[in-house]
Amino acid sequence: MGQLLGWSAMALREVINYTFFIVGKFNWDYVVFFFLHVAFGIGVSHLLHLWLRKSKVFEKSAQKIVSIGIGLVLGFACILGLFSLVLSIYMDSEASPDVPNILVYYLGLSMNWIQVTTPWILFYFLYRIMEQNNTIRNEKLQAINLVKTSELELLKSQLNPHFLFNALNSIKALISIEPEKARGALIQLSELLRFSLNYEKQTLIRLSHEMEEVEKYLELEKIRFDDRLQYELVVDKTAANAMIPPALILTLVENAIKHGISHQIWGGKVTVKARQQDAKLEVEVSNPGYYQPVAENRIGLKNVQERLAGLYGNKASFTIRNGKEHTVIARVSIEGERKSRQAGIDATALSIEML
Description:
The chain is rod-shaped. It has eight helices and eight strands, in the order H-H-H-H-H-E-H-E-E-H-E-E-H-E-E-E. The longest helix has about 70 residues, at about 100-175. Helix 4 (about 100-175) packs parallel to helix 6 (about 205-225). The strands form two sheets. It has a six-stranded mixed beta sheet, with helices on one face. Strands 1-3 form a two-stranded antiparallel sheet. Helices cover about 60% and strands about 15% of the residues. The chain starts with a helix and ends with a strand. By secondary structure, the protein is of the alpha+beta class.
């Protein structure tokens, strides 16, 4: 349609030009002459379009693209000039004046067609270059998304060995001392293993589900630490259905025990609090100790930061700092977090305190 409108506008302009300014009267021969050019021009430009789409012209350097464009402008004009020459001689009309020197006349016709072929090639090339840039941009975005997805999967997979190692250590310490407790611990461990195998398939899970796994983990660790470990899980009713990345809180609790409780002679208390106000979810994990940002404890925390950044961008934040009375506080904030469609969780059941 664009081709037809463009070439028809050119023909109409030439008919008006000849009728009012060059010859001074209307003649149907002008209409036939120029609209035959319309049909011929559409045919040639369509063939040119097909060739350019199959070729790799727009993958070349800018200098080569410009050179090819100039060559096509001149070549296209020469083809149209030749068609005009043949048609003028054939029609022998006023549109085809007497030509003493046919070569000069042909060159003149070709030069006139340059004013038509130049904008055609220019606009077509600009359109194709923009199309090419959009394609490259989309491919780049797809590549970035693929890399981001791969990174998230890798980060999630990095949690498993760490988590399993600590859980197995807890069981190992119990088996030879209290077999009955060991049996219960094995059940909890099997459930944790099932969770660790399944959560990699999920991007987000309900916070209440996460807290159930956190409690199992803490129970296993309590076997190992005995009275040195106390914990408290407090989840607001409104936060229970919030959707969070799997093993997010588990990682923070694991970090609190590994770098906090295990270094305290008398142990201490790990507290997990989750609350939601409007669309903002806040999760806080605190433990006794002193936070030092060393490489040893940065891997898990870096994973938390990168997973939040990958999923929420600047809508989520993670901080860890030293609080009052020799306490380390890790806090995750997520704005506009998604809620679970399954409502009706009795979140108050998640409020547990063991001292």
